[in-house]
Design goal:
four-stranded antiparallel beta sheet, 11 helices, about 240 residues, about 40% helix, alpha/beta, Rossmann fold
Length: about 240
């Protein structure tokens, strides 16, 4: 593995109940890179994310992170190595306040709470304004920022975003994209996002993997991402 490669999978197979979904996924993510994974519904994108974080065991193949095999590591141990996961639907704790949600991530970082909170608030000012508000009363876009902030408390070097635009008003989607790109530029954190929203993909991704039938079938360059029709073709249901 080259020194600048943060995450690499080789021949990754995984599925449910003995039925394979991923069928030999090969991918690489470099340090500081934002990579999108796109494709039609049902081709294995979310299964890939769950396999990377450890919620779904690999049947075959390898996952290496910072040169270390993740094969036998549980999800919480992968998080402590520096992988943050924002699941589809965000999964914030609705009855807890913003700050209480952020506190959930403190066991990962080992840092003093207030210092870490203020850092997150610097990236997402709306969370500072709403720090005492129950998460369940916030908008979808604000909850998405909170979900990302909760991951940031753990000081990750890689964030996995599964369908970050889902359930968010179109006018707010690009705000989430802009904030994520700004976070990448300021901290150097790598991001892998599974997404269907063409505008969000174009705004965030530096490179793009295309999935079909459980495999990576193409890689789109930044120039190719500028062509909406090219991206749309790979997203077509």
């Amino acid at each position: 593995m080259h020194s600048d490669i943060l995450l690499e999978t080789r021949g990754l197979w995984a599925g449910y109940g003995g039925k394979p979904v991923l069928q030999g996924v090969d991918m690489q993510v470099r340090a500081g890179e934002i990579v999108a994974v796109i494709g039609r519904n049902g081709v294995g994108k979310s299964t890939l994310m769950k396999s990377l974080i450890g919620l779904l065991p690999a049947d075959r193949g390898t996952i290496d992170f910072k040169g270390q095999s993740l094969a036998k590591l549980a999800a919480h141990k992968r998080a402590r190595l520096g992988i943050g996961y924002v699941p589809q639907g965000r999964d914030v704790f609705p009855r807890m306040s913003v700050e209480e949600n952020l506190a959930v991530g403190l066991s990962i970082s080992g840092s003093s709470s207030q210092a870490v909170f203020e850092e997150v608030y610097g990236h997402f000012p709306i969370l500072a304004e709403r720090r005492n508000q129950r998460a369940g009363t916030m908008s979808g876009g604000q909850q998405q920022q909170l979900a990302i902030g909760r991951v940031l408390v753990g000081k990750p070097s890689l964030i996995l975003l599964d369908e970050p635009s889902e359930g968010i008003q179109p006018s707010i989607v690009m705000d989430i994209a802009r904030l994520s790109v700004d976070l990448n530029r300021k901290t150097g954190v790598s991001i892998v996002l599974v997404e269907q929203n063409i505008d969000m993909i174009k705004a965030m991704a530096q490179r793009c993997y295309v999935m079909d039938k459980g495999r990576i079938t193409a890689t789109l360059t930044p120039e190719m991402l500028e062509d909406r029709e090219t991206v749309r073709r790979y997203l077509a249901v």
